[in-house]
Design goal:
4 helices, two-stranded antiparallel sheet, 129 residues, single chain
């Protein structure tokens, strides 16, 4: 997670929250799929990976999401612990997934609001209005 001088960590946070909301939406969509295992992103793993010194990407692979490459995102994607056993092997708890999705959307909105405020202040500084 590169610390962007303009937006700070919020630019990276938007990308990571988007990825997390995609996973959570997939969990909700597959709530009735036999054998489906709910997934989420482990932000502690991502934070630890982001704080490591940047190494050159092997084979010219481009890194995404503020310096985190796809392999790091994949490594930080974990299966959610099952809270209620299901006969069909599905580990999705719809209430938990909806709660996590709501939390992720609030965090996404907070980052958007911060970036919007930052852009408005820059626009005011440029135009004087």
């Amino acid at each position: 997670m590169a610390n962007d001088p303009l937006f700070g960590i919020h630019a990276d946070a938007l990308q990571l929250q988007r990825r997390r909301m995609e996973l959570l939406a997939a969990n909700i969509a597959n709530a009735d799929t036999p054998g489906y295992r709910a997934r989420d992103i482990d932000f502690q793993k991502l934070l630890a990976a982001a704080q490591q010194p940047a190494a050159p990407a092997a084979g010219g692979a481009a890194s995404v999401n503020g310096g985190l490459d796809d392999a790091q995102l994949k490594a930080a994607t974990v299966y959610r612990l099952q809270t209620q056993p299901a006969v069909d092997g599905n580990t999705v708890d719809t209430q938990v997934e909806q709660s996590q999705f709501a939390q992720a959307s609030l965090q996404y909105q907070a980052s958007l609001s911060f970036m919007d405020g930052r852009l408005r202040s820059l626009l005011t500084a440029i135009t004087g209005q």
